[in-house]
Write a structure and sequence with these properties.
- The chain has a domain at 279-473: Butyryl-CoA Dehydrogenase, subunit A, domain 3 (Up-down Bundle).
- It is built from 16 helices and 14 strands.
- The protein is globular.
- The chain has helices at residues 6-12, 35-42, 44-50, 55-58, 73-89, 99-119, 123-137, 276-312, 319-344, 362-387, 390-393, 403-412, 421-435, 438-449, 454-464, 467-478, and strands spanning 19-21, 24-25, 59-60, 63-64, 141-144, 170-175, 178-189, 196-199, 214-219, 225-229, 252-263, 267-270, 347-350, 356-359.
- Strand 1 (19-21) and strand 2 form a beta hairpin.
- The protein has a 6-stranded mixed beta sheet with strand order 2-1-10-11-7-6, with no helix packed on it. Strands 5-8-9-12 form a 4-stranded mixed beta sheet. The protein has a two-stranded antiparallel ribbon with strand order 3-4.
Length: 483
């Protein structure tokens, strides 16, 4: 089938899915004032395929590049470039309707191959068929991984003692033709405007957790699935005061499974508890590579905004400002270099999709993600320092509609001599949207929690670093002998 147009994508979402926003059932997500904005933002991925400027990057042999398994470091670099370009077109906000789903598909294809070889299962065939369906129909995908967890000191099967056996999504019935699942997943991105939902385990499991070791895919409109959409950032905005968030939005949901039936051909893990951790980790290494790729336009925007406001405020020659600007450049370019190096240092795994898949180097990916996450708030502080207090005390768009007020505003808020007042205020509003609005707060929380916690990144770095070689080198330098 040919690639879908944006209009075909919009039409595919009118399927009676069960979505709630602020307590009200949403009859049509494409027409909703908030979710509709997120839907139009997500269409960037479909628009790129129709745009001659981006088609060679977005499409490979009449298939969205996202669905094409990366076989080489160059393939990973092209994927990273596609993610970065789509996010740039999305105003620094990742599109994610194909990125995250294919991260999951690639992870599933590797782990399914391993499970089949060890246990004689046939998950690889199912993953391959589902991947083909998604690619041929150019589908939009969401991934539900993070369980609500209940008492976080307890494992999945231990939650029942606290009266909440559904704190992790679990199998409640096994039937000849499929499974019945129950539970909830939190932080499910783009689910309101996706076609398919891929469900993955969020952690390692023990043998006692056999019913919780489950992975599957279902259409969003499957009976028993309810999406409760987060209202964060959903207030009405105008392009003058909010140049990014008035045009771009991504939805997250609490995703509830009320005795949902999943047919066998869409079940990719059903009790093989030993595979839960490898599947969670393999997915997240692909997804953290996606993450550091889509963070690049956001950091470029912070750098560019800081330079622009330093000039418009007349402080671009001040020593402390130049110091902040050089730090911001090093931060952004350091992330870019690490992202590219993660592709160059890739490894290879056999896949159910045929042949080997190139996997971004876990050590470098997690160093990149840690570099981004632990420095983001410091970057925001530098931009805010250069910008000044007008970030949160500036005038409203409506003030310029009153002639007497507009004259005062243009006279007193001009900044550097000869600078255009409107340009300065628009730059300030860009900085405000990036760093001091609900959108800015959203990005700050994502820096800490999205794609895995900071502590998870540190643990992965420790696990993947060659400790033995480092210690051996130190012993040789110290002449301590072996041991």
């Amino acid at each position: 089938m040919p690639l879908r147009t944006p209009d075909q994508y919009f039409a595919s979402l009118k399927d009676g899915r069960r979505v709630y926003y602020r307590g009200a059932r949403v009859p049509d997500v494409t027409a909703h004032p908030v979710i509709g904005l997120a839907t139009r933002h997500a269409a960037v991925d479909y628009e790129m395929a129709e745009n001659a400027q981006h088609r060679d990057l977005a499409v490979v042999d009449d298939t969205s590049r996202y669905f094409v398994p990366p076989r080489t470091a160059d393939d990973l670099l092209a994927r990273s470039r596609l993610i970065e370009t789509a996010t740039r077109l999305g105003g620094t906000l990742v599109v994610l309707i194909k990125e995250i789903g294919t991260d999951a598909l690639f992870g599933l294809s590797i782990v399914a191959q391993q499970i089949d070889a060890k246990l004689g299962t046939s998950y690889g065939k199912r993953v391959r068929a589902f991947h083909r369906n998604c690619a041929e129909n150019d589908l939009a995908l969401a991934v539900a991984q993070t369980d609500v967890k209940g008492d976080r000191a307890l494992g999945p099967s231990e939650q029942a003692a606290k009266g909440n056996p559904d704190a992790y999504v679990r199998i409640v019935e096994r039937r000849p033709d499929g499974i019945i699942v129950r539970g909830a997943k939190a932080h499910t991105s783009v689910s309101t405007n996706a076609n398919e939902l891929i469900v993955l385990p969020t952690r390692a499991m023990s043998e006692a957790d056999v019913d919780y070791a489950v992975a599957f895919a279902i259409p969003i409109d499957t009976p028993g699935v309810t999406l409760i959409a987060s209202p964060h950032g959903g207030s009405e905005k105008n392009p003058f005061e909010h140049p990014i968030s008035s045009r771009h939005k991504m939805m997250e949901t609490l995703t509830i499974f009320e005795d949902v039936f999943v047919p066998n051909e869409r079940v990719f893990l059903a009790g093989e508890w030993q595979a839960a951790a490898p599947l969670a980790l393999t997915f997240v290494e692909f997804h953290r590579f996606t993450a550091v790729s889509y963070k690049l336009p956001l950091l470029d925007a912070l750098v560019g905004t800081a330079f622009l406001l330093a000039e418009l405020n007349g402080v671009d020659r001040a020593g402390h400002v130049r110091d902040k600007l050089s730090w911001l450049i090093a931060y952004a370019e350091g992330l870019r270099a690490l992202t590219h190096m993660a592709a160059h240092r890739c490894g290879f795994h056999e896949s159910a999709l045929g042949g080997r898949i190139a996997v971004p180097d876990p050590l470098t990916v997690n160093v990149a993600k840690l570099h981004f996450a632990t420095n983001y708030h410091a970057a925001v502080a530098r931009v805010q320092d250069i910008a000044g207090g007008l970030l949160v005390t500036g005038p409203a768009k409506e003030d310029f509609d009153v002639a007497a007020l507009s004259d005062h505003l243009r006279r007193y808020l001009g900044g550097k001599l000869g600078a255009d007042t409107d340009a300065r205020l628009r730059a300030l509003n860009l900085a405000s949207d990036l760093t001091a609005s609900d959108f800015g707060g959203y990005q700050e929380v994502l820096a800490v929690h999205a794609e895995g916690s900071i502590e998870a990144e540190k643990l992965t770095i420790l696990r993947n670093y060659n400790h033995a070689a480092a210690k051996d080198f130190a012993r040789r330098l110290a002449d301590t002998g072996s041991g």
